[in-house]
Specification:
Strand content: under 5%
Largest sheet: none
Radius of gyration: 39 Å
Distance between the termini: 108 Å
Helix content: 55-70%
Number of domains: 2
C-alpha cells in the first residue's frame, strides 16, 4: 500500500512532544511566601503600635525632671526650668499663666554671666508652677 502513494502522500514522522516550561507552581509558592511575609510585617507593626501606646507618659517624666532641678546653680536651673516647663504645658490656662510668670521671675538668672543665689520669690513662683502642673496630671 505504501508503494502506491505519491511522494506528497507519504506519512511523516511524528515528532516527540515539546517540553513547555511551566512556572505556575513557582508563581503559586512565591505568592504564598509573599503573602505570609506581608502578613508577618503587618502583624509586627501592629504589635509594635499596640505596645507603643503604653509608652512612658512624657509629661510625668518632665514633671519629675522639674522636681529634680538643682538650684545650687541658678543659671542652669533657670534654663532647665524654662525648657522643661515649656514641654510640660498642656491646654490648661492656669499652668500657662503660671509658666509665663515663672519665666519672668527667672529671667534675671538666665541672661547674665554671673548670677547670685536664687531669690525666694523666684523659687516660690517655680514651686507654684510645679504644683499646678502636678495637679493637672
Amino acid at each position: 500500500m505504501a508503494a502506491h502513494l505519491t511522494p506528497a502522500q507519504h506519512l511523516r514522522d511524528i515528532k516527540p512532544p515539546v517540553e513547555i516550561h511551566d512556572i505556575s507552581v513557582y508563581l503559586y509558592w512565591g505568592l504564598i511566601i509573599l503573602s505570609v511575609a506581608v502578613l508577618a510585617v503587618a502583624l509586627f507593626y501592629l504589635v509594635k503600635l499596640l505596645l507603643g501606646l503604653r509608652r512612658t507618659n512624657w509629661r510625668k517624666a518632665w514633671l519629675e525632671a522639674l522636681k529634680q532641678i538643682d538650684w545650687n546653680d541658678p543659671k542652669h536651673g533657670a534654663y532647665e526650668a524654662t525648657r522643661l516647663g515649656r514641654l510640660l504645658l498642656g491646654e490648661e490656662h492656669r499652668p500657662r499663666e503660671l509658666y509665663r510668670q515663672m519665666v519672668e521671675a527667672l529671667k534675671p538668672y538666665k541672661y547674665r554671666k554671673e548670677v547670685s543665689g536664687l531669690a525666694p520669690d523666684a523659687r516660690a513662683q517655680f514651686d507654684l508652677f510645679l504644683k499646678a502642673c502636678d495637679e493637672s496630671l
